[in-house]
Design a protein that fits this description.
Helicase, Ruva Protein, domain 3; Rossmann fold; alpha/beta; 14 strands; 49% helix; 449 residues; five-stranded parallel sheet
Amino acid sequence: MITNVLIADDEPGLRKMLSMALTKAGHRVESVGTAEQALSLIETAAFDVVVSDLKMPGMSGLDLLKGIKRLSPETEVIIMTAHGTIESAMEAVRQGAFDYIQKPFSMAEMELTVLRANEQTLLRRENLSMKKELDSEQFLHRLVGKSKPMQEVFALIRRAAPSRANVLLTGASGTGKELVARALHNLSKRSQGPFLAINCGAIPEQLLESELFGHIKGSFTGAETSRPGLFQAAKGGTILLDEIGEMPLSLQVKLLRVLQEKKIKSVGDNKEVPVDVRIIASTNRNLSDDVKEGSFREDLFYRLNVIHISIPSLKDRKEDILPIAHYLLSQLASEAALPLPLLTDEVQQFLKTYSFPGNVRELENMLERAVVLHNDQIITIHDLGFPLEGAVQIPSHMNLDEILEELERKYITEALAKTGWNRTETAKFLGISFRSLRYRMAKLDLAEK
């Protein structure tokens, strides 16, 4: 296997001799005369082994070692030292150098040391690869699914996560778009930065701009102090623009400029400031149709849709329903400090055949109700909130519109009560957009509390 070796030494003769010997041994070799040049190369290229003199003009070999371990921790460093600097060479080993070689040395000794160092580099990289794979599984564990559609989603997440490209997540409400966004963030190079999410349909238009870009003191009524927006707060991290299809056209123009210029302007401010965030957008709408209708900008759509991940509905991956149910039950029971309940055969059969219009969110709400209300360790159809077959009495005549309106009123009222009349949470609970909830409440004359 070819080893990429970098030699750093201020003696041209020694550099030439080492380069010739290691090249003849089958390695790919580059050489430089200073530690500064070596560090510059490390920033742009990958090296398996660095062979460095301990004492050089300018930056020392010890400083170079520290820089290499910061930029490329898996790269091994061999220190060359003269007789009077053995103590310093041993200090380098304590700080992470693979080994040191005392001058003068034989080329056979150097070749053997480089081979041993490369073996250690390969081992480190293999361990790092395994760790990344384990981390990947850890961050994907809440996205349960063995079905082919979900395996395709997992593969896209793993490929897209390391990229800086914008990602558009599409799928029905309740399919787990935010979980996918968090997985993309956690598996990216930005994982140590913040992950912030905002529902573009849950905030009034006049406040959404301030939430995104911030405002300065006195920029509008009530702006008593300056306040940074999400784009500044998420520096070095990721922003999820949830329900991007609900964003007003006036703000779409400003968001497009941010994506193009990588700069924002706070409300009321004249100066622009640079921002460093990755954008993930999600929607349950068909943005292509919105573009045709003129309610969503075509140029913004293409900016956001660099990588597209479509998350399937639960009805399209029925083989995942029971594994998800068992996972959610274990989570819910653990949080409630209750024994893990069992699902009857009747319940399992029902779950496998039910259409789940609210997707995974509906399944989770259904199981949460069962865990909280069931009287023993067996969950039945009654615990799920569904009547037994034949329990529904059909009247001799009916008005379907009135019945549906009454059902809509009942479920919206119950959801509002459950969330303390928090409309944003109610919309999430019901699996509809904030605007849709507001429309339905007005239609049903449900006054806000």
